[in-house]
Structure to design on (253 residues):
């Protein structure tokens, strides 16, 4: 089946699903047709009994098998959590615009579940030989997924790594690592601050926006944000025009 934007709905089956932190799950699915996926892109998963699909950033793509990280937050993620090995599901994707992959010294910032596309991006950068540093922030030790391997970890309560918000250390990371580009994914408050600090240091910045999506393909325009383009403020959909944007172009609320 083809959607009205030309994206194909792929049948897939569950390879494995496991709990990787106190509130985070990892699921690996095997599509019947393999797809090339860019870091920062996402897939949209049909959840039985629900009208709207649920979008998830791609965490891994091993031999065509797609991995995602998710937290149980509602009916959609509860359904995905209930899946068993061998169950069939269907997905649309990959969707959206991914990160630009450049041979530049890169600082990667992942906050919470925003670590998912950052881990995938780190893998892509490693493959082209780009020097990169992955830093991640979590609420506490129990929230750190067991299948992610940041070089720097920060927890709000200090139960693992450095104590405090990752934002408190961003200036220090920049001064020590001296990146040519910064990539980030996480809550809007984190992305807004990362973009502002990157601009202060005159460093390129790409951010992957987290936004509630309905259609996931740019039709319903339920995930519109404002961006600056050619000296004007215009609308952009996170699902189709993003989720990756130039952080300096986003009009932050």
């Amino acid at each position: 089946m083809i959607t009205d934007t030309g994206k194909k709905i792929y049948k897939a089956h569950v390879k494995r699903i496991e709990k990787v932190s106190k509130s985070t799950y990892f699921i690996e699915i095997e599509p019947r047709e393999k797809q090339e996926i860019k870091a920062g892109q996402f897939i949209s998963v049909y959840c039985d009994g629900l009208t709207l699909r649920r979008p998830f950033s791609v965490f891994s793509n091993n031999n065509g098998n797609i991995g995602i990280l998710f937290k149980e937050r509602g009916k959609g993620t509860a359904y995905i959590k209930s899946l068993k090995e061998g169950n069939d599901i269907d997905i649309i994707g990959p969707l959206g615009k991914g990160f630009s992959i450049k041979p530049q010294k890169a600082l990667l910032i992942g906050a919470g579940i925003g670590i998912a596309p950052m881990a995938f991006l780190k893998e892509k950068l490693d493959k082209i030989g780009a020097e990169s540093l992955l830093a991640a922030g979590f609420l506490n030790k129990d929230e750190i997924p067991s299948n992610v391997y940041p070089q720097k970890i920060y927890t709000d309560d200090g139960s693992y790594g450095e104590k405090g918000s990752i934002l408190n250390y961003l200036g220090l990371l920049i001064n020590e690592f001296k990146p040519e580009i910064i990539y980030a994914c996480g809550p809007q408050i984190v992305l807004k601050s990362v973009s502002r600090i990157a601009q202060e240091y005159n460093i390129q910045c790409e951010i992957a926006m987290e936004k509630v999506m309905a259609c996931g393909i740019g039709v319903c325009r339920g995930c519109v944000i404002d961006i600056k383009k050619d000296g004007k403020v215009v609308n952009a959909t996170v699902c189709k025009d993003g989720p990756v944007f130039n952080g300096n172009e986003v009009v932050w609320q």
